[in-house]
Amino acid sequence: MTTVCLTFDFDAVSLWLSSFRTTSVTPVSRGEYGATVGLPRLLKLLDGKAVKATFFVPSHTAISYPAETRAIRDAGHEIALHGYVHETPLGLDRDEEARLLDASIARLRKVLGNDFTPQGYRSPAWDLSVNTIDLLLERGLMYDSSMMGDDFRPYFARKGDQLDDESFRPGETSALIEMPVAWELDDFPYFTFLNKPLYSGLRDPAEVGRIWQSEFDYCHEEVEGGVFTLTTHPQIIGRGPRIRMLGALIDHMKSAGDVRFLTMAEAAGEARSTLTAISSGH
């Protein structure tokens, strides 16, 4: 059985404010497009295909677009953490990173209700500080989705790795489930255009669809019990031809047989049970 986790980073305008440090009209409007055009298209597509997904939402996005954020929840999709304002945890001291995590959860609860209990986190930088894993576990989170130590198999995240000119020394295995990601399975490098610095990723959706289909086919045919995780962004995948490509990819995955679509929390929960049993020798 192959598991498919469709994941969407609902960055909206926070991407431009934090990661690209620009607040002029046109970049901000690109973020608005993701909230007001791209997201409704995605929710319509997912509803039509009868699949559930996971949305990683910065708290800045939830506060800025509360109705859109609640629409994700009301459609039955998972909402997980994605920073306070799409900030990187790298360079933050432990107290500041903890403060931002707590503030993110609090702001999401203002929008989603006090019963909102996040199960997962994805770093906006796809990178973690030396403290991130402990901080997530302290807050009861089950999984992270920011690392690349496997392609189609979840694993227990390590902490305390040491790397220097002498050698690489793996650290301690934690209880946090890692749901790995890959740049090959992210829409950003294929489709994003930036002019400062120049980055032109305007690829043909059909070509990208073939790449993603090939990745899925390998997972389905070669990796027993594999988890295929796709990462896209409403402001990127939301363009019409790209939405159609995503729909065709979903149809292809469904037609393969022995495939199911789960939220990342559902898949991580199953992975935790399996990995725990393996580690205990059962």
TrEMBL record:
CDD domains referenced in this protein's UniProt entry, alphabetically: CE4_HpPgdA_like (cd10938)
Superkingdom, taxonomy of origin: Bacteria
SUPFAM superfamilies: Glycoside hydrolase/deacetylase
Pfam families, per database record: Polysacc_deac_1
UniProt domain NodB homology: residue ranges: 25-262
Function text: Is involved in generating a small heat-stable compound (Nod), an acylated oligomer of N-acetylglucosamine, that stimulates mitosis in various plant protoplasts.
Family: Belongs to the polysaccharide deacetylase family.
Protein name: Chitooligosaccharide deacetylase
Organism annotation: Daeguia caeni
